[in-house]
Amino acid sequence: MSIATHPLTEVTEAEAERVAPPADRPFDLPSAAAARYSVWLLTLIYMLNFVDRQIVNILAEPIKRDLGLADWQLGAMTGLGFAMFYTVLGIPMARLAERLHRGKIIAGCLIVWSGFTVACGLSTSFVQILMARIGVGVGEAGCTPSAQSLIADSVPANKRATALGTFSMGVPIGSLAGLVLGGIVAQSYGWRAAFMVAGAPGVLLALIAFATLRDPRPSGAAADRSNLMPLSAVLAQLRRQPAFWWLGAGSALTAFVGYGQQAFYVSFFLRNYTPELTAAAEQVGFAGPLAFVGVALGIVLGVSGGIGTLIGGRLGDYYAGKEPGGYAMVACLSMLIAGPLLAAVFFMGSGLAILGLLAVPLLFKNMWFGPVFAAIQGMIQQRSRSTATAIFLFVLNAGGLGLGALLTGAISDLFATRYGPAEGVRYALFATSLISFLSAACFWRAAVAMRRAA
């Protein structure tokens, strides 16, 4: 599908009332071209967000050796340290986004997290790299709530899942770029250089966003606080919507699986299949197994995840038009399929086979983004969407990003005492895959709650 024919802003006359209901959007939609530009620029920023967030995963083993870390410290560095401030600061940053120009906030945050990514490469101890990762989390806290609410204000209501699915392509594509870039640079120049190369482009992109990213809210509305809901009122409104909390629980469990596993994919392959991967790297001309795994795993994560987010967004818009729980049911079924496939793939024997077969469960596991975030954007009035998104991300990331990598590392250490570090990480990945069933159950309960509220 070309950008020129992208469906984000295609609306028939019969749908006009659904596009901009006066109570929901007290301003006009931007033009189709402006909306497409905003969505794609924000997708690029979100991609860089995940490059800087996820590059640490491909660098985990070199960092572990260089700084003498245990797996639980890797988990704390990749997950908990980042998530502590990312989750807590998301809400005050969202309140700012409901008062000020969201494009300017996003640009400023981009500069901050890019700078701290460079600082990761200058770290010489666990405490230093942990603090730098916290800084990355501080910068990224203001991006997603501002970007998602801006997108929701830029496209028709019945196209939100598609638009937010497009935006969510930043997750797998950014992970792809981080793994490929990190693997190739680290193999040739070391893990410190990889952090610096990853952080540098953010400054240029921030300048572009600052100069060109339009906030569809008129400047007067952005400055007027009279129609802003207090945080307590937003929470009170969300408390009356059980579907919001079931979606949050399902997303947190999904993120627990995703973040926890991605932090140890590279360790799994290097600990179990180094000879096989070294031979494969030599055949295709890579400098070593780290670069080969980074490129191969990045392609698998990026391509399958990107396809999954796009499909999930389109399915979400389609089934939401059929029945009130359509958004949540797309997420439920995707995790129900992904769970057993993901659990089985780590026992397929060959490292190359596992690398290739991972694409299937990861495609299904990424289908929840667009439908779930579109459902959240429709649960609260326009001027409180950033806050609702930040509250949702607090629930999601406190359980998923904060604990996923840390507990996966702890499970790996536990199994390693009996089976060794190579098999320990395999069993940890298997065990966390089964959490997908709990995620599916939560999404199903959200669908039931959405039907009852309709």
Automatic annotation (TrEMBL):
Signal peptide: none annotated. The chain crosses the membrane at residues 34-51, 72-93, 105-127, 164-185, 191-213, 244-270, 290-313, 325-347, 353-376, 388-407, 427-448. Gene3D superfamilies: MFS general substrate transporter like domains. It is a multi-pass membrane protein. Keywords: Membrane, Transmembrane, Transmembrane helix, Transport. Residues 38-451 form the Major facilitator superfamily (MFS) profile domain. One of its GO terms (molecular function) is transmembrane transporter activity. The keyword Cell membrane does not apply. InterPro entries: MFS (IPR011701), MFS_dom (IPR020846), MFS_spinster-like (IPR044770), MFS_trans_sf (IPR036259). It is found in: Membrane. Pfam families: MFS_1. GO terms for cellular component: membrane. PANTHER family: PROTEIN SPINSTER, SPINSTER. This is Hexuronate transporter. It comes from Sphingomonas dokdonensis. The lineage of its organism: Bacteria, Pseudomonadati, Pseudomonadota, Alphaproteobacteria, Sphingomonadales.
